[in-house]
Amino acid sequence: MANRAPHSTIRHVAVVGAGIAGLMSALALARKGIAVTVLERDAQPPANVAPADSMDWLRKGVPQSLHPHFLMGRLRLLLEARYPQLVEALLEGGVGENELADYVHPRFRDRYRQRAGDGRLRSLNSRRTTFEMIVRQHVESLPDVTVRDDAKAVRLLVDGKQRRPVRVIGVAVETPAGGEELAADAVIDASGRFSKFYGQLEDLGVQMHIDQRDSGLLYLTRHYRLNDGCDYPQGAGLPGNIFHDFTLGALPSDNGTFTVTFQVFRDDKAIAKALRDRDHFQAMCMRVEAVRPWVDPANATPTSGIYGFGHMDSFWRRTVIDDEPQVLGLYYVGDSCVRSNPKFGRGCTWSSVAAHLLADLLAGDLTAEERIKRYESGLEAEFRRDWQTMRQIDRATEAAFEVASGRRRATVAERLSMRFSALVNEATASEPEFFRELWTGYHGLQGMSEWMRKPQSWPRLARAWINARRYQQQGVLKRGRPGRHELAGAPS
Fold first, then answer.
1. Cβ count near 119 (within 10 Å)
2. Any bridge partners for residue 222, and if so which?
3. pLDDT tens digit string along 407-424?
4. How far apart are CA 351 and CA 339, in angstroms?
5. Distance separating the N- and C-terminal Cα atoms of the chain
6. pTM
């Protein structure tokens, strides 16, 4: 397993956080023969909780663990290539799968021609707690990996002899037994969006460039389980049903479970408040034609209340400014470094790709300055273009929500953008070949906007536009929805 470069100075790495980013960092480092200590502030999974019942494991430090996680093709390919035993464990643990054909409406199957590359467009579908439990069990079985629970990283240890750039040499930890200092050749901050070290670094004079924008969106999620003998309903294009003032999506998960999530404008406070009521949430799901088969009591049973999650932001952190590293020995992985709106399903994939990029650099014969510069430039090359595309989509979605809620009038450009977005959504359901191109971008196997540069996309988009009204009149594509007053709980 160990294939570390013989002259690498990195022998031991402290990883802060045992979420997806932290576990993937440990997995990648162990593959390189580097010893790892993972520090996790939460308690370990209960020994008597099986993956099928993973929601019984309360991840207090990871509120988004209660929301759906779709693990896209690029992540699956990475795991299959490097950790086939882990993939086997995930499937044995009940993690679900979906392929491109699962999203092809029966009415349009004659337009779908399977291609050799379609196998790459397979997702792993899992509640985060299930995925995390199985990955963690695999990571803990590896030599030279130690996962310490109830261990809260409270402060970075720095080399007092070096003023600029600041050099990190370990981390201070609080445990039930008391405080201690853990020395490390490098520290990975995989503690997510609530990373705590920024204030300390700022006091030490470390400058960082942070690019952040909130999307103005709120998620409201409920968990369901299929009834005995029932199966997931047939899909048709994108999993989300997109309207100008809300999106509603049903996502298959593991062990016969699934989630249903409303994405609403955070300033639609009456709607957001009303949807937190379980009965109203269920009633509104039943009013969306495409989602009704999922939540019909004959098909599935709710297993949770309504979980809310806000602060859906795009975020990018750089510690190299004007080609000058500001801090050495500290690396951000996952949401503490780069994140996008979770609706794009990139968090787990980006965390995993970044973790393996970093592990390669830590195992190499490089200086600390070279490592951080190559790492951050690598993140830029891998993710920046799609990150900007996602931010643009979030801006357009927020604008559409503002207009639909009556807060302002749309500009000409916004009206055109809203019509175009609706057409693209329609085409993913009625044009399987068009959907393939779009879905390949969602799976991280090409740029998200790459489909726009392919000539064959536009005739298919035009055919979807020409036939859209006819399909709706025939009832082929289910687009029925409740009105805004209904969503807000007003009598119909």
1. 13
2. 260
3. 999 999 999 999 999 899
4. 9
5. 64
6. 0.93
